[in-house]
């Protein structure tokens, strides 16, 4: 690998992009996280000759993502971002929890260089894998002058960390930025940028140095027909410091569940209201008894609340 001031570091964490099946026609019965990141890069001839450095940070199916992996990944990304010879970072990741890891890294690091997630809906062994093109596009985005912040690239679309969510179980264009739409498109190696790159305040890595078992516990509960919320009291006993409710519609919560959540809030446990709806914020009125998570989806609201609690000590 060459060494210039334009190095791109590619960090591997697993996922379907690194998955294999016995049968090339099988795009669902595969095992994720089987191929190393170096081999993924070697499988894309157009990446040969570029100044790329690879590092395997983890090798997991992202449905099994842990705070331990997040801790290791955040610290490695932070390390490489501080290198003056690194232009940008690419992270290969599973699609299932990509939006959570992306939001976590954006809020912890708010990087001024691009940190670009590459993923795939089909395994590397597929007759027609989508991973190689997505990886190539991700390296392209990570090399773009002026690019910054945490984004994800799939199916030629670039999505910002705050908006990105997995919106389809199977299709290769599985990701969406909801009302906001993609931040940019990658078209034949060229970038068509539509909106500003992600930026904002960073929580920083100080809080992350503690063992993940000591990170604040934040759980998600869903409001649904018949939710009486009786088991919510158990969350306090489990040591939860925060609870996100995936509410219905514009943040409406079943009255019995709300009564239980208000008891938790009165006991000092932070509660945030997000929505089960696929799009839209939770708009509040002055009389709202549980605070809104705004535009954050339940899983991102969980990350946000965990980081806020971590920062508060
Ligand atoms: N279960 C896989 C993962 O998230 C799915 C994928 O990557 O598409 O690692």
From TrEMBL:
Q: Which SUPFAM superfamilies match?
A: Glutaminase/Asparaginase
> Residues in domain Asparaginase/glutaminase C-terminal?
217-309
Q: Which domain of life is it from?
A: Bacteria
Q: Any idea what this protein is called?
A: Asparaginase
Domain (L-asparaginase N-terminal) ranges? 7-195
Give UniProt keywords alphabetically. Answer: Hydrolase
InterPro entries in UniProt = AsnASE_II, Asp/glu_Ase-like_sf, Asparaginase/glutaminase-like, Asparaginase/glutaminase_AS1, Asparaginase/glutaminase_AS2, Asparaginase_C, L-asparaginase_C, L-asparaginase_N
Q: Can you tell me which residues form the catalytic site?
A: 16, 95
Regarding protein family, the annotation reads:
Belongs to the asparaginase 1 family.
């Amino acid at each position: 690998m060459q060494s210039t001031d334009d190095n791109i570091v590619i960090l591997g964490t697993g996922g379907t992009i690194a998955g294999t099946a016995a049968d090339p026609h099988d795009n669902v019965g595969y095992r994720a996280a089987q191929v190393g990141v170096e081999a993924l890069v070697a499988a894309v001839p157009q990446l040969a000759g570029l100044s790329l450095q690879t590092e395997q940070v983890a090798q997991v199916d992202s449905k099994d993502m842990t705070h331990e992996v997040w801790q290791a990944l955040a610290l490695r990304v932070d390390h490489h971002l501080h290198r003056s010879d690194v232009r940008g970072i690419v992270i290969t990741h599973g699609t299932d929890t990509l939006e959570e890891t992306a939001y976590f890294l954006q809020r912890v690091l708010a990087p001024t260089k691009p940190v670009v997630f590459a993923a795939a809906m089909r395994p590397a062994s597929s007759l027609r894998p989508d991973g190689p093109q997505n990886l190539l596009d991700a390296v392209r985005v990570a090399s773009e002058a002026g690019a910054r912040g945490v984004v994800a690239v799939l199916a030629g679309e670039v999505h910002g960390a705050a908006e990105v969510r997995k919106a389809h179980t199977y299709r290769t264009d599985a990701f969406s930025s909801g009302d906001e739409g993609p931040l940019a498109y990658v078209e034949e190696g060229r970038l068509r940028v539509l909106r500003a790159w992600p930026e904002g305040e960073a929580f920083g890595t100080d809080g992350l140095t503690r063992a993940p078992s000591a990170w604040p516990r934040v759980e998600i509960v869903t409001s649904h027909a018949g939710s009486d919320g009786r088991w919510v009291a158990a969350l306090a006993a489990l040591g939860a410091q925060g609870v996100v409710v995936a509410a219905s519609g514009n943040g409406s919560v079943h009255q019995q569940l709300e009564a239980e959540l208000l008891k938790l809030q009165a006991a000092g446990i932070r509660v945030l209201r997000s929505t089960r709806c696929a799009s839209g914020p939770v708009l509040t009125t002055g009389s709202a008894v549980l605070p809104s998570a705004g535009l954050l989806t339940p899983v991102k609201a969980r990350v946000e609340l965990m980081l806020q609690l971590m920062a508060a000590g």
